[in-house]
Design a protein that fits this description.
Elements (H helix, E strand, L loop, with lengths): L1 H7 L23 E4 L2 E3 L6 E3 L3 E2 H4 L17 E9 L2 E9 L6 E4 L1
The structure holds zinc ion.
């Protein structure tokens, strides 16, 4: 409930600038909405959050495990700010859209 009330009062601080894609600096308003608080960047095709989402929600977009092949071919950037049991966190790196598996973190 604390999370919800924070959002209702103008949002909470995120790591970095949440008005532009951290990967390519494209304004987030040009992106395609994938779900609540999550867009596909119009510039790089990355999956990024525009506000914190629940940690469990991030796994709908990017898995918690490595991609079996680990190939960068077709890989996309991701940068997801989340709220988990330890507060705000961030998952970012590269993943394979086909498997949702992680290719590289950070
Ligand atoms: Zn981008």
């Amino acid at each position: 409930m604390l999370f919800v009330s924070y959002i209702g009062h103008g949002g909470i601080k995120m790591s970095g600038d949440n008005t532009h894609c951290p990967g390519c600096s494209e304004p987030v308003e040009t992106g395609t909405r994938l779900g609540p608080g999550v867009i596909e960047c119009a510039g790089c095709g990355g999956t990024i959050t525009t506000r914190p989402i629940w940690l469990g929600e991030t796994f709908r977009y990017v898995s918690n495990s490595w991609d079996p092949e680990g190939s960068f071919e077709g890989a996309r950037y991701y940068d997801l700010t989340y709220l988990g049991s330890k507060g705000l966190g961030r998952r970012h790196g590269w993943y394979q859209p086909k498997t949702k598996g992680i290719v590289q973190t950070g």
